[in-house]
Amino acid sequence: MCTLEKRGQLFLLKLTGDGEHRLNPTLLDSITSAITQIRSDPSSSQSVLITTSHGKFFSNGYDLALADSDPSLRVVMDSKLRSLVADLISLPMPTIAAVTGHASAAGFVLAMSHDYVLMRRDRGFLYMSELDIELVIPPWFAAMIRMKIGSPAARRDVMLTAEKVTAERGLEMGIVDSSYGSAAETVEGAVRLGEELVRRGVDGHVYGGMREALLKQVLHTIGSNESVSNRMRNSGSKL
Amino acid sequence: MCTLEKRGDLFLLTLTGDDEHRFHPDTISSVLSLLEQAKSQSTRGSVLITTAHGKFFSNGFDLAWAQAAGSQTGAVNRMHQMVESFKPVIAALIDLPMPTIAALNGHAAASGLMFALSHDYVFMRNDRGVLYMSEVDLGLPLPDYFAAMFAAKIGTSIAKRELLLSGKKIKGEEAVALGIVDSAAHDSVEGVVEATVSLGESLAAKKWNGEVYASIRKSLYPGLCTMLSLTAKIAASP
């Protein structure tokens, strides 16, 4: 499902296996568990999180086949992803998504929930697929896109043409911070950036609080589906 | 005044005649009626292209008609009437269950520019035609839903200032640079129309579900939708 490794002050969260890393309840719980573990680490406020994946996909979004077989799971998956994203937004450390494969719909949102998005340019794309598969886009996804993509035309291209955004286009749109020649180089780039951020020595709690303030509108739209434990964690970092 | 034509998947809405295509209660009502017609006839893969004949796309509200009321109060009332009755036209475009493209044959000013910007894609000529928010020069306040459209569609503070506060007549190349329009690559009306038809056909080929398309469009502009009293359909997410 996912593994968590610590390398010096860097936490490496990897979505494992060669599948699509669909955000089903099990994987979402697994990732959330890893984030909880990171938070409880005594040196967490001087650390950096890097999220990456094995194989062709970063994440291909929600598990739609599962939702078709049991519609009640739609709400469960949405609720768990909201909690996870709220968790990432309040995390007391810089976060980097090393996108080494396709990131679609909820998977694209997961990547965007990180402070930095690094991506391979030889393969793979970011894709808000909903228009192509006849699904509406949840308001909180749209809020994240409005926050992370500055140009109205780029937002339209992402949401209203379901553009398959390559790293090059992602750089133009300002969704992607830097691009690399391969999956391995992308992860290396993330590690280098992570180490630089650690060296700057920011106080993670202050950082997390600032990010929450910056992403206030997104948190508001995510709304009251936050888990109780998130609310308790967040109360300390609000000034 | 205005016509609606169907060419394959494409609906062509044309403001006809060689005049300024000013928005007057009758034109507003005609345009609204044609948009409702397009909506009722829409299928998967439908696309709307809006254009006009002559030198003007549209030069805004019919101020002469407002003045013809004969009194200050009368003029203000007529202006108010046009502003209020135009809102459903803008709402109809934002709610239209198909991609929309404005092919600017010429000048677009005030509510004429507002009409253009209400489309998903805006193409203008390189050689002729300007975009002009005349309100600041005429001493007219900006209706709230106009301001909401600019907030939704214009990305930078500089572009907003140039368009709304400077009284500038913005030509094609600058409009593209400011991110106000998608293209000003063509030196003739035929060029612009051809380019929009080409875009229209490529969008039509996607065979998107129009209701889903409209819902996603509305979720791009929540503030504007509130102003226009449009609610996005909230459906299950995954």
TrEMBL record, chain A:
One Pfam family linked to the record: ECH_1
Keywords: Fatty acid metabolism, Isomerase, Lipid metabolism
Pathway connected to this protein: Lipid metabolism; fatty acid beta-oxidation
Transmembrane regions listed in the UniProt entry: none
GO molecular function annotation: delta(3)-delta(2)-enoyl-CoA isomerase activity
GO BP field: fatty acid beta-oxidation
InterPro entries for the chain: ClpP/crotonase-like_dom_sf, Enoyl-CoA_hydra/iso
Reactions catalysed according to its record: a (3Z)-enoyl-CoA = a 4-saturated (2E)-enoyl-CoA; a (3E)-enoyl-CoA = a 4-saturated (2E)-enoyl-CoA
Family per record: Belongs to the enoyl-CoA hydratase/isomerase family.
Cited PANTHER family: ENOYL-COA DELTA ISOMERASE 1, PEROXISOMAL (PTHR11941:SF84), ENOYL-COA HYDRATASE-RELATED (PTHR11941)
Name under which the protein is recorded: Delta(3)-Delta(2)-enoyl-CoA isomerase
Annotated organism of origin: Brassica napus
Encoding gene per record: BnaCnng54360D
Automatic annotation (TrEMBL), chain B:
InterPro entries: ClpP/crotonase-like_dom_sf (IPR029045), Enoyl-CoA_hydra/iso (IPR001753)
The gene coding this protein: BnaA04g06040D
GO-annotated biological processes: fatty acid beta-oxidation
EC number, UniProt record: 5.3.3.8
Record-given protein name: Delta(3)-Delta(2)-enoyl-CoA isomerase
Domain of life assignment: Eukaryota
Keywords from the UniProt entry: Fatty acid metabolism, Isomerase, Lipid metabolism
Keyword set includes Cell cycle: no
Pathway assigned in UniProt: Lipid metabolism; fatty acid beta-oxidation
Group of enzyme by EC: isomerase
Pfam families, per the entry: ECH_1
Catalytic activity entry: a (3E)-enoyl-CoA = a 4-saturated (2E)-enoyl-CoA; a (3Z)-enoyl-CoA = a 4-saturated (2E)-enoyl-CoA
UniProt record similarity statement: Belongs to the enoyl-CoA hydratase/isomerase family.
GO molecular function list: delta(3)-delta(2)-enoyl-CoA isomerase activity
